[in-house]
């Protein structure tokens, strides 16, 4: 499997604070990878560095075979990386439909780009709420909208920071089912979340980040099912 994302020995942080240090990871074409670790260990910073929202001060970031270490975020997005950010960042004053159309493109140059009908098939609730304002949506609907918006950019890799944070169990399951469907269609997924069993269905390989470094990588299910491993890397 060739790497769609290749992070090689990267340092990055905020101002003089180095948050990730000598971090290396890969996400293959079509692969599902879970990024896990305790709070504040550097998961969001890792994602921000891949997307060019945080600058690597050392090492190299490659996306789709290109060196993007110093590339602007919009250039990286155009290589086919779609972000579903923490907090969702829905435009509150726009309708669902406007939210979806405001940013639509086909950056990943997919043979069959996503359209409005496709995303409403994936999330029928969005289809029912096309004329509602973003501010009127529930948390789960906002997350569906954020995923749909990212899909309309035609990504080859979907990156989700806190995929199901704060959502009711039934809504979480809808999100996981949709993500499993996306994987089955060949989309690569890099996902941060804490529900390991659900994650395993979308992201069979897990990468544990500890103090800005990769502390462990292996099967997500192994991490979920082995109490010692779980306590070592994720226990509080
Ligand atoms: N904008 C910022 N400026 C300065 N420090 C920051 C900033 N954002 C995050 N940090 C610090 O960087 C460290 C790693 O944060 P990061 O958000 O990457 O961790 P995380 O693993 O995603 O954690 P969480 O699960 O809590 O979101 C933390 O110590 C945090 O306080």
UniProtKB/TrEMBL annotation:
The keyword Nucleotide-binding appears for this protein: yes
Keywords: Amino-acid transport, ATP-binding, Nucleotide-binding, Transport
ABC transporter domain ranges (all copies): 5-236
Domain of life: Bacteria
Pfam families: ABC_tran (PF00005)
GO biological process, one term: L-amino acid transport
Claim: Transport is one of the keywords in the record: yes
InterPro entries xrefs: AAA+_ATPase (IPR003593), ABC_transporter-like_ATP-bd (IPR003439), ABC_transporter-like_CS (IPR017871), BCAA_Transport_ATP-bd_LivF (IPR052156), P-loop_NTPase (IPR027417)
Gene Ontology terms, MF aspect: ATP binding; ATP hydrolysis activity; branched-chain amino acid transmembrane transporter activity
UniProt record similarity statement: Belongs to the ABC transporter superfamily.
Protein name (database record): ABC transporter ATP-binding protein
